[in-house]
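User: structure tokens for this one?
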Amino acid sequence: MENHKNISQSIWQKVGQATDILIVSHRNPDGDTIGANLALAIHLKKLGKNVTSFCFDPIPASLKFLPQNNIITDTHLIFTKKYDLIITVDCSNLELASIENLITALKNKFTLINIDHHISNPLYGDINLVLPNTSSTCELLYDLLSDWQITWNQDLATNLTCGILTDTGGLKNPSTTYLSISAVANLISYGANISKITQKTMNQTTVSKLKLWGRALERLKKINKYNLVYTWLTQQDFIDCQVDETVSEGLSNFLHILNEGKITMILKETNNQMIKGSLRTNADIDLTKLAAKFGGGGHKKAAGFSLPGRLEYANNKLRIV
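Assistant:
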């Protein structure tokens, strides 16, 4: 945070001036956006602030172990209230948070603070703390809270550690740095149980989940021309395996073990007539440039996009129809 002291102090000043604060996570939440939301909310409540935590979608069952997770709501009625400060965490744009229309309906003037680590973030806030070289928003928030010289506790440490671990695949993916590991080491000293967090978020599975993943693995294709390995999942796959779409999360990171192809891509049909693409690489390739061609974004090593349509496989070709 040394190079961003001015932004850190600007956020601290706005927090000090605010009474009512809204913290927003992105839709289809993961451990990073939920961990960041909860940690920030816990600290701001200790400061005596009236804090509301919002996420457009419910928290996944795998994250229900996080301390004080029940404070996050998905009701839109919270946008009938007035806020001095709105803070988005891990939201590369307002559309990802699904609040682009909701916040415009707010009658009072508020300050929007954007805390994120996605390189594709367009800096949409009044104050932007966006550090693309940071492994996760939770690592960024760890640095921010450390800069504020807060008093740490186990709840804060657990939530932030969850975000760092899940966004780095257990401190294994290319975004992991010595700073990430140092942050987790310090958070463990504050009470985070890395074994429990790993077990709850990464080491639990079901027969149905493995059946779904098996379909994706069976379909793996390689396009030598583009050094690309890809696969896909349809809505029928989710129905047949009796699982929801969240069960496919983690498959992209799992495919990092491949030593063929510089890029892996998973195409997944969603239940709203869209196709979600997930891109990963271990090579020196900026995937945000590829994702941007389809209106997406993310990180250099992990990016994504969404397109309207359905997937159709015929004559040994996959098409979007």
